[in-house]
């Protein structure tokens, strides 16, 4: 091993209810082989999660879903040859991206393309939340931490469940997309079962709302996230003074925001919150909610993102793969 490289050993842990088959498959897989990393290219590797593009790009069809004035969408990928006969899908793989990625770019885009090619008999879709990835924003759900409390993830899952009634569904989610999903699923475990969600893989879920939000500002990630947020608003609402009549909302605070906390505090009135602490309480996925998850769930992330859940994991078949890192928010 060279001077500018180092090796890390992934680890895996299981809930008490994990079955023998799951334990064997994870423990014997290549996932647990040592990983060689460069000390010089962490930021280059990190940028791949945002900028990598699949080659070739598969055909993508966007399905827009208007729910009483709220516009959501799903990008459906098609890996079937043009002359392939139509077949009944065997299941649905639904992805929820992190900020800055979509069906064509970054971690989610690469993963969605890989899944579509690997499982051609399954429908593979990437969720598009309000205002994201060019989707028009038709409400006052400005991009912010508080948006997690709205539950649009559940509305999309329920729509897909009705569209493909009776088919099993697996959710793959990353970063804030994973937070969106677990918050809804932990709050509505009965709906998870009704919708046929049989499993989930959650990447870089984070520990909870407070340390994750703090890590955004302390790690230097805030400028990137705020620029993505501002881009959504510039595209949809070039003149924010149109919203200045909303009690307590001051558009100038959004322009002046330099941290995620300042941005989140500026949009509090749009979501009906009074304090920043109230937002963090409303969007947090608590250990009790984690225990309520009714399906097998795999968490993939850094050690300090997952160990907080060691006492709150689902008791069904569960595996958690993590990469040891220094203290702090490993995702950031």
TrEMBL record:
Q: What are the protein's GO molecular function terms? A: monoacylglycerol lipase activity; short-chain carboxylesterase activity
- Which InterPro entries does the annotation name? AB_hydrolase_4_sf, AB_hydrolase_fold
Q: Look up the domain of life of the source.
A: Eukaryota
Q: Which family does it belong to?
A: Belongs to the AB hydrolase superfamily. AB hydrolase 4 family.
Instruction: Provide the protein name.
Output: Exostosin GT47 domain-containing protein
What organism does the UniProt record list as the source? Cladocopium goreaui
């Amino acid at each position: 091993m060279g001077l500018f490289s180092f090796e890390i050993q992934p680890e895996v842990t299981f809930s008490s209810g994990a079955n023998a088959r799951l334990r064997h498959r994870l423990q014997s897989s290549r996932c647990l082989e040592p990983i060689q990393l460069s000390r010089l290219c962490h930021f280059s590797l990190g940028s791949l999660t945002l900028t990598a593009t699949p080659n070739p790009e598969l055909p993508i069809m966007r399905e827009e879903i208007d729910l009483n004035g709220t516009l959501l969408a799903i990008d459906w990928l098609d890996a079937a040859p043009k002359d392939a006969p139509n077949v009944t899908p065997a299941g649905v793989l639904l992805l929820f991206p992190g900020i800055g990625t979509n069906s064509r770019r970054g971690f989610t885009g690469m993963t969605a393309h890989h899944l579509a090619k690997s499982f051609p008999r399954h429908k593979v879709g990437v969720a598009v939340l309000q205002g994201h990835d060019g989707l028009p924003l038709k409400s006052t759900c400005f991009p912010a931490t508080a948006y997690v409390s709205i539950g649009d993830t559940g509305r999309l899952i329920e729509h897909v469940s009705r569209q493909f009634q009776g088919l099993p569904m697996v959710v793959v989610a990353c970063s804030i997309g994973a937070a969106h999903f677990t918050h809804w699923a932990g709050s509505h475990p009965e709906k998870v079962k009704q919708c046929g969600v049989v499993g989930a893989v959650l990447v870089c879920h984070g520990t909870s709302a407070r340390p994750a939000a703090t890590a955004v500002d302390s790690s230097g990630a805030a400028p990137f996230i705020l620029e993505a947020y501002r881009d959504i608003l510039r595209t949809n609402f070039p003149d924010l003074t149109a919203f200045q009549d909303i009690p307590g909302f001051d558009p100038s605070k959004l322009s002046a925001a330099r941290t995620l906390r300042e941005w989140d505090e500026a949009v509090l009135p749009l979501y009906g919150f009074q304090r920043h602490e109230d937002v963090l309480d409303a969007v947090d996925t608590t250990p009790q909610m984690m225990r309520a998850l009714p399906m097998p769930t795999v968490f993939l992330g850094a050690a300090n993102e997952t160990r907080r859940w060691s006492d709150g994991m689902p008791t069904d078949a569960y595996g958690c793969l993590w990469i040891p890192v220094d203290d702090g928010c490993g995702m950031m």
